[in-house]
Design brief:
The complex is a heterohexamer, with three copies of chain A (101 residues) and three copies of chain B (362 residues). Helix content of chain A is 25%, strand content 38%. Chain A has helices spanning 18-27, 65-79; strands at residues 4-14, 33-41, 56-63, 85-94. Chain A is of the alpha+beta class. The model of chain A has no long low-confidence stretch (mean pLDDT 95). Chain A has one domain: Alpha-Beta Plaits (2-Layer Sandwich), CATH 3.30.70. By secondary structure, chain B is an all-alpha fold. Chain B has a single domain (3-358), classed as Na+/H+ antiporter like fold, CATH 1.20.1530.20. Chain B has helices at residues 3-11, 14-27, 36-61, 67-91, 96-107, 111-124, 132-166, 170-196, 198-218, 222-227, 229-279, 284-295, 301-309, 315-348, 353-361. The longest helix of chain B is centred in the last third of the chain and has 51 residues, at 229-279. Chain B is globular, with a radius of gyration of 21 Å. Classes of the chains: A alpha+beta (101), B mainly alpha (362). The A-D interface holds A 1, 3, 6, 8, 31-36, 62, 90-96, 99 and D 10, 12, 36-43, 48, 56, 58, 69, 72-73, 76, 80, 86-91. The structure holds adenosine monophosphate (3 copies) and sodium ion (NA) (3 copies).
Chain lengths: 101, 362, 362, 101, 362, 101
């Protein structure tokens, strides 16, 4: 079966920024995503112990390359300054491109 | 019993001891931890218990008595928030965002502190007015809404000034308008989030349910929602102690000014609260709880609201000071102080008050 | 007390009020949520409590009395499942898979509904036969097994027909055989899954343990497994309310036919159940619980079984109707109705029944 | 240390399909995998709130390229129609190829 | 009541029955599971309850009486650990790492076993000395520290021998020194981990808090930390049963020698413990608990400590034997045996002991 | 926005080895990481049911290619023999390389 090249965007950020990330996706007509709680360490210190609001979340989005630039640009512009956040992009192959706009 | 004895006897209750124990466990880097699911559930449980209890009381006493104290509490919360802001911005030299965030954190209320207060009173054999739970619910969002409103006003003003000084540049203009629009939607969203936030929802819901079911309907669930209450607080305070303990290192970073603020401000707000409540006719215990509402700072609701509303503010400042300094101070030291003050003004009238106070406090 | 009064008084119990509260919390999009670990633990706890209680009762009363009601319950569950299928397939025009899935969801039983029923009776000061817990356990898989068997028969038949009409093509044949083999292993797997499913296992285990330990052995754990019971249901029903509330939007999608089915069918099954149980000699409360078993739909066990057994069926249909419509209807409206019916037939004999019923119900 | 190229197959699906996915792996003599609960949104709507059975799971499998086609073919054929499921493949480097058949 | 009767009556308590139930649930591959958050919380809760109880007792009785039994327990724990090692290494032919790991697993104590023991005594209407909780806390790390120390000594020696036999090669030398340094830091880290491990921390903390608050301070939380105790053990033992059941297959892999060791060794250690405790003047129940401390093996703390300290040892060996064999044996068979022995030596003096024992045991 | 190539190291190991992995990272001056609990199957059998200590954890680290070799060499040398552990490396693109040393 043929695998089609698409992009996987992964955003690791503080849990209270999850809504912001998903709002940005929605704005770009991307509805599919997968999310889960994680803990971690970074420039804003150890996160994930203690209060729920102080945890991190990973949001993963499979999307077409076309939309990628706009989405990461908006995330970078609106969230990088004030939130604990890390973002990376990788190449993946999928079977049904029509599922990922 | 003088105030030091009262503080000492309060210090030796399971609640305070297990809180201190949590702090120590965190300091010696123990891996002790109450699992997340439990420590997320306990505040919901505590608020349900507080609400049910309050609602049942209000069914007995009616809720007409509630309105004046509630309005006064709202007014004081707003006033105090503005006062905090001036102090933090002018004396503390914090930036606009941190000032408003901190101001509202201390203007808001802490449900956990409230739970501990109720247990403290129970221990002293004193009751309080049931409608205070309703005031707790109403007070939750008030300070945040004010702070967010004022922050947004200030940001708009800054932007307008910038705009003026720069002349009317097209591209910049659209950006500005966007900024203002975002700000508005921001406030709207925060309003919704505050009011539908789990703390308020469970608290208000339980008050109403308590009011409907009364003592009789409550009897079948009173073992869970009444008798387990203090034990549940103990378990929750182990975790709060651990989290506070993990934050103790950050206290150095918040600076001497904020540390002093985190102790003096609640004391001031709380004692004023006790006195005002006494004037309003609340009981000895009711005045303590009223004072505690004003003295307490929010550390569970605050981050959830402020990270969206004032993302520029540093959560390390407001969480650390509220949870790491004010909360321990409130439950260990201020609660007995306010109880003493309330005892004095309830027994002896207000004439000798300041004389007595100065004796008791110093 | 007439039926409307009874419904009203049931409406004002903590269990029902907190369930409604959960629905409202979900509707106003509150972030209130009972943590997963708690809401996964509570059904296990409730079933253990039900089982222990039932087992202890059976030790007192013996279990010979159980067999006739159990056989009748199994028979009725099978009959009702077939009946549901005919109605859904012929009148509702659902496809084969959805019809069987829905038929068995309503033929099966709901353990949470059963818990609420026990609390309702306790509230009314009425007891029920302990062996009903055993019937609950046995009834769990019956409807699923029937539905899965029939679905697989139907699929095999379809495949055979297709095969005939296409002529005997080799490659297709092997595929077909594979299909039938898969189907068989499917049924075997589902049988195993049903019987080792956590609900049945904990329920049967607790019945046996309750039977062994009796009142005396139970005393050391009765505070956990008896006194906390109603409070635990309340907490669980907050979460069930939230989930039901989140599904309210989906109700539009299930269509008017299924909505009516989700209300009329349980009423019919339940009232028949009460009457049959009365004839079999069960007590007032026992007849209500017997009726509730037949009226209830499964919404925790159903998806676990049906997603594997009939993956072609849409879970949004059977979960939404069972949890979003039938469960609230059962605990709020039908439970008091069945209690009324049972009271009538237990006090006045069956002669005046239909006359009385029509008065009471309309 | 030399990194050998193998494939990482990631399957995000409803929790009740996890068993099916792992059965398919076992059938192809693949025993190693990693799994964890997630939530997400897709064609079958928001998943992860409410009942445990309504959550998602991610199953990750490191495998040799040879087996990949057969495995994804069988997953696609048996699970794509009836289950909430998404699958993607990426390239990763490992130290010990002998661990991943 | 002779020993078989006592075993039988112990077998029919909720705690043991639910443990066996958990084993069965796992064997029939049921998906029954107590959610992680609950099963991680329960040991913390149990230890807090044990500690509070012990602390309160010690406040009543003073803690001078504690020192001799504690020193003896430490001494015996060290002696037994050495003894285990010799048996495992010489007779069992296990390698050095597995031998030390197993030796210390059985030299250490099991807090869950201790909880069950307390419940068993309660059931028999017998009390035990409160300071045994303190001995439990102190005994936790003792065996581990010894085993780790000896392992590291042995490894260093091996390395030195190797070095000698190879001649002094420079590159190899630095590696060796590194090895020794790592070993030292290893021991230091393990010491820290042992002492700050959650079990010890919560246990010691609760003992101190119990000591401070006394009966009176405890009353407000006694429903949670006393009355719910047995019910909480029951819930925890369901999960322990499930985990033990999942490990039953692995028992074949551990071999006949280790299976016998897992039964004979605790019996030997436990009975000696009862006798020594009796000589030291402990009460009937206290001697049983003292014996249980020495008989029990650690299965929650052990992996956490040993994976870091002796990573070369196979956890499948020490977890499987401690949880899968010794724990069930201890709570089902050995506890009644030790109770019998303690009853005998407390009532009849030690003269008839061996005669009586041989009658009772065979 | 330009995406810079860096490496993503993923280590799946038994939970009691997490500290060891993070200590190795710290030793190489890498402080940023993300971690979360998972379950899985491998050479050391099914992991993730039962006791907390018997679970697995995934540790993900975005890092510059230069450090990668040293880090994986040390993990392999010190942990491969005695612990349940799997490690793989993939290529990802990030916006801010300065965050990942
Ligand atoms: N180098 C890294 N590798 C993997 N995850 C990282 C890295 N740096 C940061 N993170 C994750 O991103 C979160 C936010 O990072 P920061 O904004 O740097 O505090 C951290 O809490 C980690 O979960
Ligand atoms: N574009 C996407 N990116 C990442 N994950 C997705 C995407 N679409 C769907 N998913 C995940 O796959 C699950 C099933 O998808 P679906 O079958 O489309 O409902 C969803 O619940 C998500 O967790
Ligand atoms: N082929 C694989 N694909 C994905 N994860 C794996 C694979 N093999 C092992 N793992 C994970 O790595 C852990 C340790 O593997 P092992 O050391 O082989 O027992 C397992 O428990 C799994 O979580
Ligand atoms: Na305040
Ligand atoms: Na039914
Ligand atoms: Na021992």
């Amino acid at each position: 079966m043929k695998l089609y090249n698409v992009k996987l965007l992964t955003v690791t950020c503080e849990i209270l920024a999850q809504k912001n990330v998903i709002d940005i996706l929605t704005k770009h007509d991307i509805t599919g995503y997968t999310a889960y709680e994680v803990e971690g360490n970074g420039a804003r210190g150890l996160r994930g112990q203690g209060l729920k609001n102080e945890k991190n979340v990973k949001v993963e989005v499979i999307m077409q390359e076309e939309k990628l630039q706009d989405v990461i640009e908006e995330i970078a512009r609106t969230l990088f300054t004030n939130f604990a956040i890390v973002l990376y992009v990788s190449d993946v192959g999928v079977l049904r491109t029509e599922k990922f706009v | 019993m003088d105030i030091l004895e009262l503080i000492q006897s309060n210090l030796l209750t399971p609640i305070v001891l297990f809180f201190l124990f949590g702090i120590i466990a965190a300091r010696i880097k123990s891996d002790l931890k109450i699992p997340d699911a439990i420590s997320e559930f306990l505040p919901i449980y505590l608020l349900a218990a507080i609400g049910l209890h309050g609602g049942i009381e209000m069914r007995n006493t009616g809720f007409e008595a509630m309105f004046v104290p509630m309005m006064v509490a709202i007014g004081m919360s707003l006033l105090f928030t503005l006062n905090h802001y001036q102090i933090l911005r002018r004396l503390g030299k914090f930036n606009l965002f941190d000032s408003y965030a901190l101001a509202s954190t201390y203007g808001a209320v802490g449900a956990v502190t409230f739970s501990v207060g109720l247990s403290f009173l129970k221990n002293q054999g004193v009751t309080s007015e049931g409608y205070l739970a309703a005031i707790l619910a109403v007070l939750e969002p008030v300070a945040f809404i004010l702070a967010i409103f004022l922050t947004n006003m200030a940001v708009s003003k800054q932007i307008k000034n910038k705009k003026k000084s720069l002349g009317e540049i097209d591209s910049s203009e659209s950006e500005l308008e966007m900024g203002v629009t975002e700000t508005k939607s921001n406030l709207k969203q925060v309003l919704h989030e505050s009011i539908t936030g789990k703390a308020i929802v469970i608290l208000l819901g339980s008050i109403i349910i308590g009011y409907i079911i009364g003592e009789e309907g409550f009897s079948s669930i009173s073992i869970v929602f009444d008798e387990l209450f203090t034990g549940a607080i103990v378990i929750f305070l182990i975790e709060m102690g651990i989290i506070a303990g993990q934050r103790l290192d950050d206290i150095k970073k918040v600076g001497v000014f904020l540390i002093s603020f985190s102790i003096i401000m609640p004391t001031f707000n709380g004692v004023i609260g006790v006195l005002v409540a006494t004037v309003l006719g609340l009981s000895l215990g009711g005045a303590v709880m009223f004072g505690l509402l004003l003295a307490s700072a929010s550390f569970i609701a605050a981050p959830a609201v402020l990270r969206h509303a004032i993302p520029q503010a540093k959560p390390s400042l407001y969480i650390t000071s509220a949870l790491g300094i004010t909360f321990p101070y409130n439950i260990i030291v201020l609660l007995p102080i306010m109880f003493m003050v309330s005892s004095v003004v309830h027994n002896e009238g207000s004439i000798d008050l300041f004389h007595y106070l100065s004796e008791g406090l110093i």
